[in-house]
Design goal:
- The protein is of the alpha/beta class.
- The protein has 2 domains: about 240 residues, Alpha-Beta Barrel (TIM Barrel); about 90 residues, Chorismate mutase (Chorismate Mutase Domain, subunit A, Up-down Bundle), CATH 1.20.59.
- The chain is about 50% helix and about 10% strand.
- An 8-stranded parallel beta barrel has the order 1-2-3-4-5-6-7-8, surrounded by 5 helices.
- Helix 1 links the parallel strand 1 and strand 2.
- Helix 11 packs across helix 13.
- The protein is elongated.
- It starts with 5 loop residues before the first strand and ends in a 6-residue tail after the last helix.
- Bound molecules: phosphoenolpyruvate (PEP) and manganese (II) ion.
Length: about 350
Amino acid sequence: MQVTPKIIAGPCSAESREQVLSTAKQLASGRIDFFRSGIWKPRTRPGAFEGAGNVALDWMLEARDKYGLKICTEVANPEHVEAVLKKGFDMVWVGARSTANPFTVQEISESLKGVDIPVMIKNPTNPDLKLWIGAVERFQNNGIRDISVIHRGFSVYEKQRYRNNPNWQIALDLKKELPNMPLLCDPSHISGRRHLIFDISQKAMDLHYDGLMIETHCNPDKALTDSKQQISPKELFELLEKLKLRSRGEFMDDQLREFRLELNEIDRNLIDLLKKRMDISEQIGSYKKDLNRIIFQKSIWEKAFMDNVNNALDVNLSEEFASQLFKLIHQESIVKQSKIFLNPDEED
Ligand code: PEP
Ligand code: MN
């Protein structure tokens, strides 16, 4: 059985009536499920463009009426909720900064009490699964039934490949705890850069996510917010066309596939960690070379080795497994360091 992902697309923020309507018009020519825009933008620092505010509510309504799109926006306080309910929006979402604050989540969820509107909850900015699940529970406690979650990645101090580290494991753990809750991915905020959006979207599909929220703008380079990560409606349609939606029924058992995917994710992390470890070994190699010291320092290695084996025993890994593993890692470190010693061209 192949499942079509739910697609939510639209600009990061509502900038002008023309921008909202032009984006909506282009998006309406393809298949999307919801048109999004941020009406009130939670900017990290003051002074940046903060969305057009209340006036944009009517632009969104106009987009719905003219192009037959369902509309949604982010709500960050009870006033936002009141405004969108009054206008009859089809869905709302809670942003990452709000999810990180239980007081805010409590207020928003209370203001939606007794209202039957779908709510999407983005992960908090910090990598805290309990906080994310806690937000879901607060909405459930206030009677909201139609809840989905959006994985948009987690803040990091030093940005590397991604603007927000995906930490896929957290989303997979959430899926384990809330197996029936639709899980969407927001590759725009994870990547921060448009050329990475496809790969993240494909990975989300391979991990059985139920949909994608992708920031889409009629003129991405001119966008007033998040311009590097926005794509045009045409690019969105090309991306969706290219996505491989693998059959979800082709495996003997879905549960086994979930486990397999989790293992793949952990293996990927292991490789990243091993690479980091080898890099440090090489740095040590260069340092020792500069100081004219030998590579192998027996007592230091023996102590580290025993600590590692004991740590492994503490968590019920076998002594034999741990000692083989760390000997192998150590051998490889020595090989790397030896190369530095032997290479006369090595600079540092
Ligand atoms: C957004 O979707 O435009 C947004 C502000 O996202 P996040 O809450 O994930 O930063
Ligand atoms: Mn954005």
